[in-house]
Amino acid sequence: MRRADRLFQITQILRGRRNTTAKYLAERLGVGERTIYRDIRDLGLSGVPIEGEAGVGYRLKQGFDLPPLMFNIGEIHAMVAGLRLISTWGGNALKQQAHSVLEKIYAILPIDKQIAFERTPLFAPEFVNASQRGLFDQLHQSCQEQQKVLIRYRDGQQNHSERIVHPLALFFWGNTWTLLAWCELRQAFRSFRSDRITEAELLDQHFISPPGQQLQDYLRLIEHECDTTS
DNA sequence: AGAAGGGCTATGGGGTGTGG
DNA sequence: CCACACCCCATAGCCCTTCT
Predict the structure, then answer these.
(1) CATH number attached to the domain at A3-60
(2) Nucleic strand C within 7 A of Cβ A21
(3) Residue A127: band (very low, low, confident or very high) from pLDDT cuts 50, 70, 90
(4) Chain-centre distance of CA A14, in angstroms?
(5) In this structure, are residues A182 and A189 in contact, taking their beta carbons and an 8 Å threshold?
(6) Separation between the CA of A54 and the C1’ of B20 (whole angstroms)
C-alpha cells in the first residue's frame, strides 16, 4: 500500500470510530505502531484535526469531514449489484457485512443518488455467458432509461415471438439472467430469459409505468405468491 | 542517496481497581 | 472520597534496514 493510500485509510478508519488506538491502526494497515505515530503526526501537519489521548486512542475532531467523495449512477449500480450478489451467495456473516456496506453507502448519498440507489434494477451481478454482455448492456440501459425495447424471443417450446416490452429489472437465477418487463402484447408482467432473446432493439420511445405496472408491484406480487405457497 | 519503515527505549498522562 | 499502584497508550528520539 502506498503511503498516500495509508494516510487516506487512516482518516477513513478514524471517521468511522470513536477512539482508535495506534495498535489497532497498525494491525489494520499492516505496519508498525511507530509508523502510525509518524502518519498521525503528518496528517496533523497537513491540517487533519486528529486528537490523541494517552490511554484512549485517536479520534477526529467533531465536524471534520473529507471533501465529498461522490459516485455517479453507474458506480452506484455497480456497488449495489455487487453487494447484492455477496448478500445472495455469501455466508451469513458476509451477508450482514454486505448489508452494512449498503447502509453506509446509502447514508452518505444525497437524495437524488439515494433514489438512484433504491431503483437499481440489478438483482444479481455477474452474467455467466460472456457472449451476452452486449445484450445485457442493452437491457440494463433500457431498465435505467425506461426505454421501450423490441425483442425477438424464442420460448421453451421453440415458439418465436416479437414484442415490445417495458424493461423493469434484470434477475439472475443461477445460470442466466432474465429480463422482467411489462409486455405490451400480453398486457402483463413477463420474464424473458436473456439467452432466449435472439435480438433486442432499443426503441426511441420511453415509458412511464403506471401503478400496477411498476417493479414494486411485481415484487409485491412475488412476495404474495411466496407467502401463499409456503 | 534519501525516504520510509521497524525495533527499542524512555517519558508522561489518563483510566481503573483497590484499600484505608 | 482519596491516594496509590498499575496498566495502557501516546509521543519522541535514536539507530538500523529496506525500498525507491
Answers:
(1) 1.10.10.10
(2) yes
(3) very low
(4) 25
(5) yes
(6) 29
Residue of A192, A185, A203 lying closest to A146 (CA atoms): A203
DSSP A142-174: HHHHTEEEEEEEE-TT--EEEEEEEEEEEEE-S
Contact between A183 and A141 under an 8 Å Cβ cutoff? The reply is no
Cell numbers found for residue A44: 496533523
pLDDT tens string A106-123 = 777 777 788 888 888 887
Cα angle A58, A59, A65 (rounded to 5 degrees) comes to 140
Which of A29, A27, A23 shows the shortest CA–CA distance to A11?
A29
- A226, A182 in Cβ contact below 8 A? no
Cell numbers describing residue A142: 433500457
Assess whether A57 (CB) lies less than 7 A from strand C.
Answer: yes
| Residues A139/A179, Cβ–Cβ less than 8 Å | yes
Q: Which of A34, A40, A39 shows the shortest CA–CA distance to A60? A: A40
Which nucleotide lies nearest residue A36, CA to C1'? B5
So what's the architecture of A130-229 in CATH? Answer: Roll (2.30)
- What is the pLDDT, as a whole number, of residue A62? 59
